């Protein structure tokens, strides 16, 4: 029996595909702030556990950057602004 594929529009699909897109909040190395300051900032603002914040901080130090959070743009924008207030170098991609 030959079946035809059903190409009807999925009612659960979002109308705007960008609306559901996940973005990444990336922290960049700045050679200014010490480890403790960056770790505490990640714990406070990004809700990281201590070990996670430490690992991200080491990655930033040795690799130059680290994706510290994945999520919707609106949520990441708030964290981005708070990290900028602490004079950390961040970007949303």
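^ Assign residues to that structure.
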């Amino acid at each position: 029996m030959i079946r035809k594929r059903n190409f009807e529009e999925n009612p659960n699909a979002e109308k705007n595909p960008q609306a559901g897109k996940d973005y990444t909040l990336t922290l960049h190395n700045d050679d200014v702030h010490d480890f403790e300051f960056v770790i505490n900032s990640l714990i406070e603002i990004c809700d990281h556990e201590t070990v996670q914040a430490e690992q991200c901080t080491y990655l930033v130090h040795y690799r130059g950057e680290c994706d510290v959070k994945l999520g919707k743009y609106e949520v990441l924008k708030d964290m981005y602004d708070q990290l900028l207030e602490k004079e950390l170098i961040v970007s949303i991609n």
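The chain has one domain: 21-92.
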